[in-house]
Write a structure and sequence with these properties.
A hairpin with a 4-residue loop joins strand 2 and strand 3. The chain is built from 13 helices and 15 strands. Strands 4-10-9-8-7-5-6 form a 7-stranded mixed β-sheet, with helices on both faces. The longest helix is centred in the last third of the chain and has 25 residues. The chain is globular and about 65 Å long. The chain is an alpha/beta fold. It starts with a helix and ends in an 11-residue tail after the last helix.
Length: about 450
Amino acid sequence: MATATESAHAALHARHRAVLPDWLATYYARPIELTHGEGRHVWDAEGNRYLDFFGGILTTMTAHALPEVTAAVAEQAGKILHSSTLYLSRQAVELAERIARLSGIPDARVFFTTSGTEANDTALLLATAYRRSNQVLALRNSYHGRSFTSIGITGNSAWSPTSLSPLQTLYVHGGVRSRGPYAHLTDAEFTAACVADLEDILGQANGTVAALIAEPVQGVGGFTSGPDGLLAAFKRVLDRHGILWITDEVQTGWGRTGDNFWGWQAHSGSGAPDILTFAKGIGNGMSMGGVVARADVMNCLNANSISTFGGSPITTAGALANLTYLLDHDLQGNARRVGGLLKARLTAVSAGLGIVREVRGRGLMLGVELVEPGTDTPSPAAASAVLEAARAHGLLIGKGGLAGNVLRIAPPLSLTVAEAEEGADLLEAALKQAQSELADQAPVESEGGTAQ
């Protein structure tokens, strides 16, 4: 007989399925309801405690229930929640000033949005208006949001439900290093081949291309990336044609990669991008995103525009407190140090496991690609099995990749060494359990050589 808690959970899940879209994905065969969190841990409605290695899709950047952010939000909530961009906002101006300085873009202007999707939409609006063209370059395997416009530039078919788009998108190589036609090349050869591909695409484009948009590390695509310097090599080509470079930092920003504050800084050899988009971590869970662009690009619109909710008093107050904490506590340095340790541990525990093809990433943005043992064939079944096993062991992780076969590991940037060690142990147990379960489910060959 089901307990009262189990019955309540089943009822909530039934209500969810009855009123929300069928295409709204949830994790786990039995989805969980998270009720509260603290630090790097969260609890579900049944009282289970989890070490959070996904942070609400890389959004809880510093920590759950960070006192400094909670206090700033509570104080602002007691004053005024909303005003819109029709009125001056001291905290919005202060946050914009800090982000403009941190962006590395000269003469930068900042526009706040409510999400990364909206930020990328705005960047595309600016680029196409500035260049008077609807042609956009994007990387294969990319993901830039779930709106109609951003889906139109998404190179990951698993997240692109329609081919209709207001944009003409041209896809180039460079987002995936270890698969595809250039995987066997050295980094220098890979970069040269991708640049040649870009040149070829531009030679075939019938018009003036507006921009190249690229994630320095592809998030939904499974934490893949090209070699450092690839986007700088692209920029040298783009600059010859006057094409803008948009860097999508929704997942790579704020020091998550450890080595750099922004992902584009691993590709800085040809200068700063023209447009930078951000979201997720800066709000630490609140709806916050934005665009940074050169003043001439940002100011190119010749029609009125406002934002009702972008840069609201409460989100900018929380984001300011969150950014201050991140900088004061050098969480970028922590991501580099603890992320390096975690990657080394995951590489070691994966060495003898046939379902693991590759451990990749940098800082606290790590991916583990899973395959059918003894092959190079992506295994989404393995990823789903590890996800379930990890939850059962008390660890929350994500998954992604074109085939849904990559584990995505992105804890809050305040992760401690002890928590990294604990998480590696829990993931090792989950990987071993999943490999064993999948082996038990594999068809057995008869003496005649056919599966039974």
